[in-house]
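Before going further, learn to read the protein records used in this course. Taken together, the tokens spell out the fold as the letters spell out the chain. A record is reproduced here so that you can trace the correspondence yourselves:

***
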Amino acid sequence: MSRNLLFSLIFILVFITLIILSAFIFWDWVKNEPVSTENPSAQEIQELTVFMDDVTTNLADLNYLIRISFAFQLDNKDAKEELEASIHIVESNVIRLLADTKANEMSDSQDLDLIINKLKDIINPILTEGTLEQVHITDRVVSRI
């Protein structure tokens, strides 16, 4: 093997090693980039929110009917798309939850917070691409039949 060929091989190996090392350093820098802690803007919240309007069903006490609407805020766009694709499952779970809820359990903000937390516990296991961050009840009417 000639001396020039040996230097060329060593040069190529060192060059490839430097490229791989640079890729690892860049990857580590990208992974550890600090996450923004600023509050999202209204536009960003809008882009990550799925609306479910006018779900109407009976409550546990069959003499009462509820019409309710929700806004589900997710942590990323992939999770939003996933929730939009499975909105029928979410609506079914909402109806099942309301079917076990009495009218007097929908009367104040603490009751609504309990419903919201139950919905988070039901919906988050459905999602694989992200998490449900907020549930907002945007409309609620409970009426006696």
